[in-house]
Amino acid sequence: MATPDNRRALYWRANLRLLAVLLSIWAFVSFGCGIFFADALDNIKLGGFGLGFWMAQQGSIYVFVGVIWYYVWRMNKYDREFDLHED
């Protein structure tokens, strides 16, 4: 049986792992798709604009909102999983 201190350490480790993955996704989309791979992505047209341009202007924002939504949803699950929820 996990002690409260052990449970909190596991919770924190899970939180850091989730943050690392989500920030990596965000960095790849915003910097990778919007800057580094923009020229290659511009060969794909989306609504008349190149995909690289679209990712730099709109796509990275949509992905960032999705990342925030997923983080909140996953952390609520972690709260219940590690029995650290407030309600």
From TrEMBL:
Residues 10-85 form the Sodium symporter small subunit domain. This is DUF4212 domain-containing protein. The chain crosses the membrane at residues 16-37, 49-72. Pfam families: DUF4212 (PF13937). The keyword Electron transport does not apply. The keyword Plastid does not apply. Keywords: Membrane, Transmembrane, Transmembrane helix. It comes from the Bacteria.
